[in-house]
Amino acid sequence: MNTSDFKKGAAIKYNGETCIILSYQFVNPGKGSAFTRTKLKNAKSGKIFEVSFRSGESIDEANVEYRNCQYLYNDGKDMTFMDSSTYEQFILPLENVGDMQNYIVDGSEVIVVFIDGAPFTIQLPPKMNFRVIEAPPGDKGDTATGGSKQVVLETGVKVNVPLFIKEGDTVKVNTDTGEYVERVSQ
After folding, report:
1. How far, CA to CA in Å, does 163 sit from each of 34, 137, 180, 186?
2. E strands along the chain, which residues?
């Protein structure tokens, strides 16, 4: 894997350990060569650290398997999933799932990332559709500034949306940033 292939959630080998890329940023300083600054999480210890890689540097990928699984429930500490092909149930700690837990609906299909044979985290599509379950009325007269309001989605997460969105609408949300993308017509 090259540094230009980095993406959030990818698993790499660094100093012989399996690490997950939590975030990355390409930096091209005015003086000197370009590099990619990353924040990595050690898959076994959970330790988070920052590493800079030279631009174009080659990094080994980790032994990663992606499985389609069904999300069953959240007990407040762990999330329980079921492998769709073997029907085997397993848990993932909430800290491994992070903010992605805000975009999972009970019974939904997700991709679970297995590292070295053990479940580690999940992957969500970059954009997902959600039903708005709570929306305050839009105030007339606020539309000239392209105003926004906060609504509650079916997962319980709050998102800022344009004033014309109402309860019962379906909206597309960017799961990486948590921002409204567009209203989806039914």
Report:
1. 42, 8, 12, 19
2. 11-14, 17-27, 35-42, 48-54, 64-74, 78-83, 89-93, 109-115, 118-123, 127-134, 148-153, 158-162, 170-174, 180-184
Structural domains in the chain?
Answer: 3-54 (2.30.30.30), 64-123 (2.40.50.140), 127-184 (2.40.50.140)
The string of pLDDT tens digits covering residues 75-124 is 889 999 999 899 999 999 888 888 888 888 888 889 998 887 888 888 88
Entry pTM: 0.68
